[in-house]
TrEMBL record:
Pfam family, one: VWA_CoxE
Organism (species): Labilithrix luteola
Family matches, as SUPFAM superfamilies: vWA-like
Membrane-crossing segments per the record: none
InterPro entries on file: LolB, Uncharacterised_CoxE, VWF_A, vWFA_dom_sf
Domain VWFA, chain residue ranges per copy: 214-373
Protein name: Mg-chelatase subunit ChlD
């Protein structure tokens, strides 16, 4: 499209051409889609250069090199794009340009918008962190963890604390613990049709939490690289569980070895920095260890987060899950835990474990909390 014909376009048509120009990059000129200076808006050239810095290799750009560096690109993107777009582009920066430039210039870590993808990248390359970048990386990870925790904890507390208060009744007559639903249901026989009144001859009360045996939640997390996002959410969920009244929380990480980090369950950043990615997978060994810390099976919920690709005979895994189920331990197996996870897990093995007593889910953290609430309520 020539500059002369462009002048004849309406504002909407010019905006459309501008968007296609940004999509096509330098190839647009060879295809006849070009704009005269300023035609795409006062920021079009800066926007195009910023996108070209990331995508020109994919769009078949010529040999022209961008004048941008990583630091100047971050400044440009911050100026030209809204926050949501900025986060997407910065994830692409880390993905396409690698982490090395950022690690070589620690101040860049302070300028990139913290997000889960950046946390995953930092954890994947944590062995490359210098003492200075390790301090900055910890701040980034902590900020993301705290934001996610604030988002999740209200919903989790509502689902699980509400269930804890309602899973058993008590003879103690405390008004704030009245179980109104049960009281009404069990007194329906006393309905007086003539007077149109319900006469209550007995009131049911929920048990006070401090007088009840606690539930034991064991969170068992696969450390393999494909499970990294799930490991992030698992560590956060475990830290929330640990703060709930009436809940004892254990946190176990595994590959071919098993590490019990229950003493760090309230420090999810420390947990994540302890994750050792890669290696083999021995789910059986992890569950065998978990079985040794079960004290009261009927009040234990074991949450297993894994891709279900077992590194030893599958029959061993089926056997240990069967034994736990026979002991009345409630088990929830997650192929993924997060919001954007596209789980690649062994559905055949997961299906066999479902048959012997493990609930199999792929869900958000909130749905996991709802599921646990249902288990507690019975």
């Amino acid at each position: 499209m020539t500059a002369r014909s462009l002048a004849e376009l309406s504002d909407d048509e010019r905006a459309l051409v501008s968007r296609w120009r940004l999509v096509l990059g330098k190839d647009a000129e060879r295809s006849g889609v070009c704009l005269s200076p300023g035609a795409g808006g006062e920021n079009s050239e800066g926007t195009e250069e910023a996108l070209g810095f990331l995508f020109d290799d994919d769009r078949g750009a010529g040999s022209e090199s961008s004048q941008l560096t990583v630091p100047s690109w971050i400044d440009t993107v911050s100026e030209l794009f809204p926050r949501q777009a900025k986060e997407v582009l910065e994830r692409e920066l880390v993905k396409r340009k690698g982490i090395h430039q950022i690690l070589d210039q620690p101040d860049l870590l302070e300028r990139i918008e913290p997000n889960v993808e950046l946390v995953k990248t930092l954890l994947t390359h944590k062995d490359l962190l210098t003492p200075k970048t390790r301090v900055l990386a910890r701040k980034v990870i902590d900020k993301v963890v705290q934001e996610l925790k604030r988002k999740l904890e209200v919903r989790v507390e509502q689902a699980i604390t509400g269930a804890l208060r309602k899973d058993r009744h008590s003879p103690r007559r405390v008004f704030r613990n009245v179980d109104l639903k049960t009281t009404l249901r069990r007194n329906l026989k006393n309905w007086n049709q003539e007077r149109e009144k319900l006469f209550v001859d007995k009131v049911w009360f929920y048990a006070a939490e401090k007088n009840k045996r606690p539930w034991h939640v064991i969170v068992c997390v696969d450390q393999s690289g494909s499970m990294l996002e799930s490991a992030i959410f698992s560590s956060i969920m475990a830290s929330i569980f640990a703060e709930l009244p009436g809940v004892k929380t254990s946190l176990v990480l595994f590959d071919t070895q098993v590490v019990d980090l229950s003493n760090q369950v309230g420090e999810p950043v420390d947990v994540l920095l302890s994750v050792q990615l890669g290696g083999g997978t021995d789910i059986t060994r992890a569950l065998e260890y978990c079985s040794t810390i079960v004290r009261e099976p009927a009040r234990t919920i074991l949450v297993l987060i894994t891709d279900f690709y077992e590194g030893r005979p599958e029959a061993d895994l089926v056997r240990v899950v069967t034994n736990l189920a026979d002991a009345n331990v409630r088990m929830v197996g997650l192929g993924a835990l997060g919001y954007d996870a596209q789980p690649q897990y062994n559905r055949q093995t997961a299906g066999k474990l479902r048959k012997v007593g493990m609930d199999i889910l792929v869900c958000t953290p909130e749905k996991l909390a709802d599921c646990m609430g249902k288990i507690i309520r019975g």
